[in-house]
Design goal:
The chain is an alpha/beta fold. It is built from 14 helices and 15 strands. The longest helix has 20 residues.
Amino acid sequence: MTNRAKVKVGMIGAGRIGKIHADNLLRLPQVEVVAVSDLFAGDELEAWAAERGIGLVVQDSAVLIANPDIDAVFICSSTDTHVPLIEQAAKAGKHIFCEKPVSMAIEQTEKALEAVRAAGVKLQIGFNRRFDHNFKRVREHVQGGTIGEPHIVKITSRDPNPPHPDYIKVSGGIFMDMMIHDFDMARYVSGSEVEEVYAAGGVLINPVFAEHGDVDTAIVTLKFANGALGVIDNSRQAVYGYDQRVEVFGSKGSVAVTNDHPNTAEISTAEGITRDKPLHFFLERYNAAYMEETQLFIDSLLKGTALPVEGNDGLQAERIALAAKLSRELGRPVRLDEMKELMACRS
């Protein structure tokens, strides 16, 4: 907790997601955004910050972290910077919100989490889909016993367009970059840990993915500790729009949610029945979810409430993503408890 009436926040990284978080924070009366840092900070960022009343813009994040007026930092910079920034912020006594993934390597993520534990600060991971109104209802019905014991978890996640080639080469691959959200969602809605992963993937959209050792289309099957089975499918390109669906089938029934649409109007004519495409992409679909995850982080700092997504949630999703990557490479199922041995053999 902070002893102040307001939480003073510093933003590290002012790309698209950083600016989204900053704007959401600025809507909260109990928050003051004190500073923003970005390696490429210049006139454009300074003008953006001035419009919002953010008084300090710097290139060096160390200046921001050392600022005694700052209670918490939002880390929205590139993934390769997350671990050192978490360590620096924790050592400085700052609470931390960090976008996913914490890192591309399990041992590095564990190192960051240890720094947080040692400093006694809070760390929330940016798994925004947990806060989607639809997915929360799925979890509530599963946890409440409405559908009985979960048997099958099905998750579909398909982007409207593939990312830029420059992003593909540094993304960490489809499992760590894209499906990691679905791995977290699988744990979230099932209420169980994943024990085994079997992944298959292909390059069906653009050969640029293969050039970087990645795939653009993938299916992963999961075995959960509670006995349930899961299946996740991902595609980097769905021509009809952003496709986000979840279903949990259980011993007493099922609960499922489909895509959000701009409206619910359905037009019926002699030519057929039509409706609008799903909301275009993650900013439109999860706009409210981004706001709620920010609000709950701030509430935790001011009121001492539990964080809704902690560092361990980030670690477990990364472990599943790594198991999926190994499974595709090895062509067989991979148990999470054998990964250390597998990684040791490959090093």
